[in-house]
Write a structure and sequence with these properties.
alpha+beta, 4-stranded antiparallel beta sheet, SH3 type barrels, 4 domains, 548 residues, 19 helices
Amino acid sequence: MKLDRITPVALLLLVAAFGPLPAQAQDVVTESGTVTVTTTPAPPPGPQDALNRGTPRGSIVGYLAACSAFDFEKAAEFLDLRNLPEEARELGGKELARQLNHVLSRSVWLDDYNVSDDPEGNKGDGLPEYRDELVVIRRLHGEEEPLWLQHIPRGDGEKIWKVSNRSVALIPQLYEEFSYPQIIEKIRGWFPEEASLLGLEIFKWFILILVALLSWPVFYLLGRLLSILFRNRDKEMYSVIRQALTGPFVALGVLLLTGAFLDELGAGAYAQQIMKSRTLSTLVVVWALWSIINLYKKHKQDKLDRLGRPGAAKLMRPMAAFLKIVILVFASLFWLNNIGVNITTVLAGLGVGGLAIALALQKPIEDLMGAFTIFSQATLRVGDFCRYGEITGVVEDIGLRTTRLRTLTNTLVSIPNSRIAYMEVENFTAREKIRFWPTLRLRYDTTPEQLHTVMDDILQMLEQHPRVHDEPLRVRLTDFDEDAILVKVHSFLKTIDFPESLEIGEELNFRILEIIHSAGARFALPGKSIYLEGDEASAFIPNVQKPA
């Protein structure tokens, strides 16, 4: 298939590839003063030429465009065929143009060209005014060989730029040095010379596909062998590792190998422009990075599940999705930059759009960060009994936006994570032991001996109880209230289960009640006692006899 229709596209791509024109500064006088303005001057017009050979850049772009279309007769018009040695003259212009294209495709990339767009050529490069350097070829034995463009008469009084006859004379020697091995030449003969796809000859596609098909099972087998190292571990983790080693990393290995073969085979200017976008490599790298993220996510989820933190393990999924999106965005910007899109404008648009999205999602983002705080610090877990403000209940679920509590009255309350993360939450389940600290209110008619008996017996009972911690353990007369003597017990139970603590506390309360009654003491009831003295008592209390 002949690619005549892609010539204008290739021409535009090549012009962009050879770099911008130099900028110049001009002083502009205004009412407020002199302002320096930087402008890019248009190059002076060259001679009118049907093949656009009036400038060095126009000449090489025209040559490469003709080669991309396999029009080597036209490409020969860009070569100076005067005064050639016999060996080169016998080949003819068409064959010399084809051989030069072969040498350039195997030894030079578009970034290596540095050609002027000035009709007078690149001044100040140390070369004669009629000569410009086209490119420097590194020969196989390490020697650098420059190729030149030369300003020559066209025959009508105008001068045009062509590949120097001195460089053209080197083409047979360079072609022999950069020619393919015999087996490649044999494969090349199987296909029509002008058959190509995306600027790459069909025989090269055949070789690359053959290399990919032969190397894929090799890399796949290598990935399976490496994944066997993880066979004795968790089955789900092994499955993720196997998928990574037999998927993206196999594709990456095949891509690197075919890329190495393509470097050896060489690619024309149009094919190089397409390859410069690095579309396949970008997709494979994104795939590989996503697989690494999946591996890390699975590893952290298993670790958190083993630590009893399923809520934190749940957070790994949105975090992994966020990282994948970030990688995809950067990969897209990288790809857009490679194909020539001005990503500065794209970034500006993303910045404005991102700001709008951030303002719209302010509350959800706050809740998401709150969930991250809860999961990372492990302040709450599903099943914990806690109190938030006036709400007391059991945590049923910790989502990305809200945390749900089942209250003591069996109602379900949803609380935004942003509020839980930045306010006080009392977690009863996190206690290592439960406090037992009743306050005993004894009557004021309790004697000191009775108080000592009650306090000593309670302390002894607590010390001997198997479900009470030895330290701290105190029974103290702490205060005198309006209607009672206050004795406070301070101890901790050997349990973290709330219903069990109620059962142990009930047993201890019964024993304290028995100790108080056996000592002859009594609990004080809320109230006040009024004591009257003298004759005034008979006015308030009937049947009171006066003392004799």
